[in-house]
# Entry
Amino acid sequence: MSEINKDIDKYYTIAKPLRAEIKIKGSKFIASAASVNTKEDAIQFLNTIRAEFFDATHNCFAYRIGYDGMEFRAADDGEPNGSAGKPILFSIKKFDLSDIIVVVTRYFGGTKLGVGGLARAYSDATEAVLSICEKKVINRTTSVKVFCTYEDISMVKRLVDEFAVTFTENYADAIDFVVEVHLSKVDTFVQKITSATFGRAGAMVINNKNQVFFSE
# Structure
């Protein structure tokens, strides 16, 4: 997906942690992938893998966080500079994923692969695990509060059902909804609520910060 055509309303991570293994000239490469929301989550997963494979020659990794993937890190863990972490990160980008960490554990098999061979091996291991991962949508939304009377509930509820990623509702003397709406549709949603009820219902943005909601 090109940056020009990138959907501002969603991006992708993986549905569940998975692992894949490849062997190259005696060396074993074990790629472990997991969805993470923060760099702290990423480091926690890394430490778990390091503890599991405490006797490995290397535990190289890369993580990428957020819609734009601007929070990232790649590490070679003793392999030649640029031969492990960067290929892992490149493969993550190739699969158009974020909020993810991939750790590639290597057990040295006695044959040196060279910088180019290592880069291919770490890339291939990463792609081996990502190719079996199911993608999971992360929706980017803004919170909109809607107020209406029972007179307009049918029309408002129809629009809420049409636009909401998720919502909560409260019924009292009047009705209010807190609706999570995709970023690109907020203005349209607010305008339709107002026009459909001839101004009787109100809608206002109550959280300008991007929220994220995982699809089921």
In short: The chain has a mean pLDDT of 92. DSSP finds five helices and ten strands in the chain. The longest strand covers residues 135-148. The helical segments are 39-52, 85-94, 114-130, 153-163, 186-196.
